[in-house]
């Protein structure tokens, strides 16, 4: 008995070692694919997390950001399936992917030309002023050779020279000094230094005056609107192209994995490795350049991302991809695709998951920056932590999917969103973001692996790229749009923290609904399909 146990233990040890070797073994036919995926998603990691803060930096308001985030995905919703259909029709995934990558780089470069900022309207004038009190009211006497007093003064920027150290009485009736070096802004009707009386007049140095000028204000507003539309149009082209690259990369990966007997999770591992390693470095780079220039500069972020995408396009050119062409009419096969009951139900719940993805993608960083004052490097680090934590699971994704099932992973993805929402609604310390982002692998990495597995199983021959594109468009584009739209409405009405709580309850509800749909509907449909497959139709209906 002892010998039998020792042999069994030894065989288990050998089996474990062999499994580790299989896990670490490289398939030489997939090396270039891994590198291309790393570079593509590294470029995505460099740019995507900073889209929203970049829009704010060029002068777009929250309402305008919400409008852009809501409308743009509808463009890519149309373009992405078209790219998938073209890829399937031609059987040439590489050419479509390379073309969309280059178009994305060109259009994103044009984004840097958009500027919707409105000038503050302050101009330098040859002017001096004296601050003094009359009858307990602060008055300003301005002397200027260049300012025409017929133009009403709206505001004034000033500096109190170090030599002026006059005693002044505040409303609280105690005496204090005006600081030796004081800068400030005085608006009309609001001369606010909390001063009601000064012992002697104080000379101040005027930096700039803002005068009322309707024609100039109209010009500024027109410039803002022009910048908004330039950004909107260029970003629309960019989003459409990038959406197509995601679908094409997934189709190429699934096709090459099938041809070379590879593991989709291992290829996805390199995608997420690129997504996790680049973002914090470009965040640090942006902070460093911003400290040198005195303002936040995001051009370096775009430069890094574009370089990665161009190198990825060169690697894709070297790939040997063999894709199945559709049998029979393409439209007939497409109709068949939509008549499989599991597919429409799957797409509906992918839309609901995409709504959560869209809300997080559009508003999480704004919440972290505005409400919790999170620095740029921590924003990038949160992306890294979320990706790295999911990497081990990607290595075993095929085994996990086989053990627990696709439906279970989708349900858990809903529930993981609920947990993250509750956590963010209670958060006060920005470092807690790293803890909550560890759950992201359930709603992103594992979910995407399970969804692609579903597409590879359910897609009719020659329609793999089409179904993958429809899934990606539904989840990442239409879902992102609905998330931006719903999130914008809820935040404007209830605030960000209350919106997190509302969406947490919704995620729990939809996850439970999908589980019930699978138990009560989908499994019965699959059972009947299996019975029809193994029994003659006439005999089946006699049962």
Automatic annotation (TrEMBL):
Keywords: Membrane, Transmembrane, Transmembrane helix. Residues 31-501 form the Major facilitator superfamily associated domain. InterPro entries: MFS_assoc_dom (IPR024989), MFS_MFSD6 (IPR051717), MFS_trans_sf (IPR036259). The keyword Membrane applies. Gene3D superfamilies: MFS general substrate transporter like domains. The keyword Transmembrane helix applies. One of its GO terms (cellular component) is membrane. It comes from the Eukaryota. It is found in: Membrane. Pfam families: MFS_1_like (PF12832). It is a multi-pass membrane protein. SUPFAM superfamilies: MFS general substrate transporter. Signal peptide: none annotated. The chain crosses the membrane at residues 31-53, 65-83, 95-114, 228-257, 269-286, 298-317, 337-357, 377-397, 404-423, 502-522. Belongs to the major facilitator superfamily. MFSD6 family. This is Major facilitator superfamily associated domain-containing protein. It comes from Artemia franciscana. The lineage of its organism: Eukaryota, Metazoa, Ecdysozoa, Arthropoda, Crustacea.
């Amino acid at each position: 008995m002892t010998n039998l146990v020792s042999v069994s233990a030894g065989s288990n040890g050998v089996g474990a070692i062999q499994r580790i070797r299989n896990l670490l073994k490289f398939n030489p036919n997939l090396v270039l694919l891994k590198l291309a995926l790393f570079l593509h998603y590294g470029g995505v990691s460099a740019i995507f997390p900073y889209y929203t803060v970049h829009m704010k930096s060029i002068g777009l308001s929250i309402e305008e950001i919400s409008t852009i985030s809501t409308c743009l995905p509808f463009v890519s919703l149309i373009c992405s399936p078209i790219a998938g259909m073209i890829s399937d029709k031609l059987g040439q995934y590489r050419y479509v992917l390379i073309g969309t990558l280059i178009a994305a780089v060109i259009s994103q470069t044009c984004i840097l030309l958009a500027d919707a900022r409105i000038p503050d309207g302050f101009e330098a004038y040859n002017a001096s002023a004296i601050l003094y009190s009359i009858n307990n009211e602060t008055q300003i006497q301005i002397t200027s050779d260049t300012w025409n007093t017929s133009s009403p003064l709206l505001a004034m920027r000033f500096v109190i020279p170090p030599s002026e150290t006059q005693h002044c009485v505040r409303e609280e009736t105690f005496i204090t000094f005006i600081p030796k070096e004081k800068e400030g802004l005085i608006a009309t009707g609001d001369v606010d230094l909390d001063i009601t009386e000064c012992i002697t007049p104080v000379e101040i140095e005027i930096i700039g005056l803002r005068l009322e000028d309707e024609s100039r204000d109209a010009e500024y507003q027109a410039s803002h609107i022009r910048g908004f539309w330039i950004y909107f149009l260029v970003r629309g082209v960019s989003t459409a192209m990038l959406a197509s690259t995601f679908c094409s990369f997934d189709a190429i990966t699934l096709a090459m994995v099938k041809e070379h007997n590879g593991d989709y999770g291992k290829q996805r591992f390199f995608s997420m490795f690129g997504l996790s390693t680049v973002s914090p470095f470009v965040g640090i780079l942006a902070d460093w350049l911003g400290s040198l220039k005195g303002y936040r500069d995001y051009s370096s972020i775009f430069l890094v991302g574009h370089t990665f995408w161009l190198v990825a396009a060169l690697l894709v050119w070297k790939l040997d991809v063999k894709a199945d062409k559709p049998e029979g009419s393409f439209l007939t096969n497409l109709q068949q695709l939509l008549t499989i009951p599991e597919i429409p139900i799957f797409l509906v719940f992918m839309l609901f998951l995409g709504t959560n993805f869209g809300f997080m993608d559009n508003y999480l960083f704004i919440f972290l920056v505005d409400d919790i004052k999170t620095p740029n490097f921590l924003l990038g680090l949160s992306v890294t932590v979320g990706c790295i934590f999911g990497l081990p699971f990607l290595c075993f994704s095929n085994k996990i999917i086989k053990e627990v099932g696709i439906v279970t992973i989708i349900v858990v993805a809903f529930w993981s969103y609920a947990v993250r929402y509750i956590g963010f609604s209670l958060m006060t310390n920005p470092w807690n973001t790293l803890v909550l982002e560890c759950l992201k692998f359930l709603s992103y990495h594992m979910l995407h692996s399970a969804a692609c597995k579903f597409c590879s199983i359910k897609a009719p021959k020659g329609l793999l790229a089409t179904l993958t594109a429809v899934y990606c468009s539904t989840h990442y584009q239409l879902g992102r749009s609905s998330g931006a739209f719903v999130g914008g409405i809820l935040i404007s009405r209830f605030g960000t923290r209350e919106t997190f709580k509302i969406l947490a309850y919704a995620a729990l509800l939809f996850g439970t609904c999908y589980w019930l749909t699978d138990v009560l509907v989908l499994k019965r449909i699959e059972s009947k399909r299996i019975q029809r497959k193994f029994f003659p139709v006439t005999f089946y209906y006699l049962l």
